[in-house]
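Tutorial, part two.
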Amino acid sequence: MSIKNKYLGGITTSSLNLPVTPTVEYLVVAAGGGGGGTSGGGGGAGGLLTAVGFVVSSGSSITITIGAGGAAGTSNEGVIGNNSVFGNITAIGGGFGGTGHAGGTQTGGNGGSGGGPWAGVAVGTGTSGQGFDGVAGKASSGTSGGGGGGAGSIGTQSTIADTGSNAGTGQVSTITCSRVFYAGGGGGGSQVTTGSGMGGAGGGGAGGLLNLPGVAGTANTGGGGGGAGNSANGGAGGSGIVIIRYLSIYAQAVSTTGSPIMSIVGPWRIYTWTSSGTVTF
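Running the prediction step on this input gives:
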C-alpha cells in the first residue's frame, strides 16, 4: 500500500516503511448516571478512557458500543449509566444520584464516576483511572443533594447549609483537534432558596431548585444528570461517545457501521460514533 497525504507532501506509507494498518488513538466515554428525585444528588459522569497506540489488525472487525444515559429518578434514586466499549476497552457508566425520598436509595451509586448522595449519607465511588467520587451535600435539615463526580475531579461541597453541592468537572480531550470537555458530573438539588449545585464542565446537568427538576446531562458527553428539587424528578444522564483518530496518510477504514462521522483535520483522520456500530481496517 502506498498512500500520499497533502500534509506530508510526497511522502508515502511505502517511503516511510510504515505498517499496512495504523495504530489508533481513542477516546471512550460511558454514559452519565441519572440524578436522584426529591432533593436528590447528581448523577456521576460516565467513565472516560483515552490512550494512543491501540493496535488494529487488517480485516478484523472492532465493536463499538455507545452507552445510553441513566434514567432520571422520580421519587427514587436515578439509574446508573450504561458502559461504552471500543474493542476490549470498556468505560464504566456513571453512578446514580441518591434520593431524599425515604423509600428510595439515599446513598450515591458507584460507577465510572460516583453519584452524589442525599445530604448526610455516603457518596458514590468512582472507578480508578476513569472518574472521581461524588461529594456530599451540605446538611442541616437534610434538604440538599450532593454533586456527582466527574472524570477530572470530585465536586465542591457547598458552604451554605441545605444547598446542593457542585459537581466534579470533566476532562479535556483534543482528539478532534479542538479542546472539548467530556464527562462532567451532575449538580445536587435543593428544596430551599439558597441554591442548587452546578453541573460539571463536560455536559453535567445542574441540580433543581425548590420544586424544579434536575437538568439532564448533555447527549454524547457522558455528563451526569442533575439532582431534583423538592418533589421533582432528577435529570437523565447524557449518553456516551467513542472517537478514534490516526494519521490520514493511511486509508480510511474498509467498512464501518453505526453511521460514524469521518473527518480529516490537519494530519488526522477522525471517526466519531454517537450510536453503536463496528469498524474494520
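Residues 1-15 have pLDDT under 50 and may be disordered. In part three we will examine how such features are distributed along the chain.
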